[in-house]
Amino acid sequence: MTLFSDPTCPYCHRVRMVLAEKKISIDVVDVDATDLPEQVLEANPYATVPTLVDRDLRLYESQIIMEYLDERFPHPPLLPVDPVARANARLFMYRVDRDWYSLMGRIVHGDADESEAARDELRDSLTSSAAIFGAHPFFMSDEFSLVDCCVAPMLWRLPKLGVELPASAAQVTEYQARIFEWPSFRRSLSDAEREMVSDLA
Q: CA 104, CA 94: separation in Å to the nearest integer?
């Protein structure tokens, strides 16, 4: 089993968190998302990372890979067994991508005005969601889950994105402190990610 992963990509980072939490033995091949090797181009028609190759199986799109790993290596489970709770977890992941990762993309790839507007929107959205971060030890759960694997890489990159949370977002920063010390998060960090500026690192 091989994972092609860009060491700076948050989508790759969340797959690496799943691997670390489940202690899965796998070859992680660092690649540059802007200059992908032929192996990735052959396996993935969209030419993106992360890309997982498992014998004859080729998977892309981080959430699909994460759920595959969770089902193939069921211990510890990272999605609830109950269908309603599992559906809610999937909905949370969808909203994290749609609401927060989309803003992160606009910060990174937009022009100056668009980046600044997205930066403000992301800060305000996280701040208004502070109570959600404080409701449970993990994101909307008493147990570490795939949702945390989605949220944590984005939060780790806030300083690099120029997003500074206000004092009123204390529950978000408290969650950051907890999740950034979680063993699988620490193990999942690439050297490039360790070098990212973070007051909470």
A: 15
Q: Are 48 and 55 in contact (CB under 8 A)?
A: no
Q: Which of 9, 12, 149, 150 is catalytic?
A: 9
Give the structural domain span for 127.
Answer: 83-186
What is the C-alpha separation between 140 and 44, in angstroms, rounded? 33
pTM of the model: 0.93
> Is 7 part of any domain?
yes
**Location of structure tokens 């498992």:** 54
Query: One digit per residue, pLDDT tens: the chain, 201 residues?
Result: 999 999 999 999 999 999 999 999 999 999 999 999 999 999 999 999 999 999 999 999 999 999 999 999 999 999 999 999 999 999 999 999 999 999 999 999 999 999 999 999 999 999 999 999 999 999 999 999 999 999 999 999 999 999 999 999 999 999 999 999 999 999 999 999 999 865 444
Q: What is the CATH number of the domain that holds 138?
A: 1.20.1050.10
What's the total number of domains in the chain? Answer: 2
Helices 146-156 + 170-180 axis angle, to 10: 110
C-alpha 55/C-alpha 63 separation (Å) is 20
The answer to whether 150 is a known catalytic residue is no
What one-character DSSP code corresponds to residue 97?
Answer: I
Residues 29 and 59 in one domain: yes
Q: What is the CATH number of the domain that holds 51?
A: 3.40.30.10
